[in-house]
Specification:
Strand content: under 5%
Structural class: mainly alpha
Mean pLDDT: 76
Number of domains: 2
Number of strands: 2
């Protein structure tokens, strides 16, 4: 699914201005003015001591030395660098401060998008507290339509933000948001399509359901293995020879013609699970030594008439025939036991469809990941979006792991603001939000970054 045309995060989030109309929660912003510096242009300016300006620490140092619009531009680059480094709370706080000075339509990761990114990673259902805060943030997200790399990076962040909530919390509007994103021509488009197919099943996505999906898949794999094993045996038996030609004739007749043996085999080969009790009873009875001997004798007499009495099948030929028939009978007996032991849930047709779709999503996730891992974008925003996407893909792979363990989720406020508790001089109010005007908060956060 990862196409060779995917060379940068910009192509991962390919966009055209005339793309699908977004839902109400997706607001199309005007493209940035041509003279707006992009994140990579700004990040090229390094601090005087030679430390790379593309780290959050280096960019924070440069931002503190700048003033006015230059500081705003550098602070936006700090946000991108923090996203790249995974420091989401600090990125959110600086983005919120920067928004007070940005011009409308200027590309950059808004605080609402970053908040939605953080909350989206912890959404479990449409009605939990995290989901409700996520909805509030999602409704404020602005999706840029420009074709510059920074705008494309923002759209890639939007995709990373929406995928998990789309799967776990359809009531949040994340599904419509994800479907409206212009991702055509990218590997993310294939992943989005696979997610859409899975959502059509109407299954809640959690470890319990996934274990049911895995149980069904394991059950189905064992069923198929027995069917294929029996079919392969029957093919071999058609050309198999036993030391005495009469024994060979009996074996071939039993596996090829309508017989008591075929009556046991055919329900299994045709997948008639409702007949499993009959199959088990007949198969068990027929595998008894005396019953097998009667079947062999009757079949031999049917084929050779009186000659069968003159020279009966015995010795090594008879033992070989018994061994072959017991082997083929083991398939329907195991099949019937497996069907009887399997739960009703394991045979659920919805779960049966779910496993291939789960496999498809996992395959698409890995394809996108390989595509992203092969990229080395020069643009800071593109690198940040790539890092965020890779983390989101890893989260989704874990989400589709039947053995995943759900951990306790802290409050939404703690999720977003926890890292800010380490910023000297920054006070949080009763809702765990920073106090003070944006410029004052920026003066506290940037020095803390500069000092590492």
């Amino acid at each position: 699914a990862a196409e060779s045309t995917v060379a940068t995060v910009a192509t991962v989030a390919a966009v055209a201005a005339e793309s699908t109309i977004a839902p109400e929660s997706v607001v199309a912003a005007e493209p940035a003015p041509d003279d707006t510096p992009t994140a990579d242009e700004t990040a090229a300016e390094e601090s005087a001591d030679g430390e790379s300006g593309e780290t959050a620490q280096g960019l924070a140092r440069a931002a503190l030395e700048a003033e006015g619009t230059e500081r705003t531009r550098l602070a936006t680059c700090v946000v991108w660098a923090l996203l790249h480094e995974g420091q989401m709370a600090l990125a959110h706080e600086i983005a919120a401060c920067v928004e007070q000075h940005e011009r409308p339509g200027e590309p950059g990761p808004g605080s609402a998008l970053i908040r939605a990114l953080v909350l989206g990673c912890h959404v479990r259902s449409s009605d939990d507290a995290v989901a409700m805060d996520f909805v509030e943030a999602l409704q404020q997200v602005v999706v840029p339509v420009g074709d510059d790399e920074d705008s494309a990076a923002v759209r890639a962040l939007c995709a990373a933000m929406a995928m998990r909530p789309a799967l776990l919390a359809g009531g949040t509007g994340a599904i419509a948001f994800l479907q409206a994103l212009p991702l055509q021509g990218s590997s993310l488009s294939d992943l989005r399509a696979a997610i859409g197919d899975y959502l059509k099943l109407g299954l809640e996505l959690n470890p319990t359901v996934l274990r049911g999906v895995r149980e069904q898949a394991s059950w189905q794999a064992q069923i198929v293995a027995l069917q294929e094993g029996c079919a392969a045996y029957l093919d071999r038996a058609k050309s198999q020879t036993i030391r005495y030609h009469a024994a060979t004739g009996v074996l071939r007749h039993l596996v090829e013609k309508r017989s008591k043996l075929r009556a046991v085999l055919e329900p299994m080969l045709e997948g008639r699970v409702a007949e499993h009790e009959t199959v088990f009873r007949l198969g068990t009875e027929l595998s008894d030594e005396r019953a097998l001997q009667r079947l062999i004798t009757e079949t031999d007499e049917q084929l050779r008439g009186r000659s069968s009495r003159a020279k009966a099948i015995e010795g090594p030929a008879l033992r070989g025939l018994h061994k072959s028939l017991r082997e083929v009978l083991s398939y329907p007996i195991q099949w019937a036991e497996l069907v009887a032991a399997s739960s009703t849930r394991a045979q659920d047709p919805v779960l049966k469809r779910a496993e291939p779709l789960r496999g498809q999503i996992v395959a698409e996730l890995r394809a996108v990941r390989r595509s992203l891992e092969g990229m080395c974008p020069d643009n800071l925003a593109s690198r940040a979006a790539r890092a965020v996407l890779l983390r989101a893909l890893a989260d989704l792979e874990a989400l589709f792991d039947p053995d995943a363990v759900l951990t306790a989720v802290p409050s939404p406020e703690r999720l977003v603001w926890a890292d800010l508790l380490r910023v000297p001089g920054l006070r949080l109010d009763g809702r765990a939000q920073p106090e003070g005007a944006p410029d004052v908060r920026l003066e506290r956060v940037l020095p803390s970054l500069r000092e590492g």
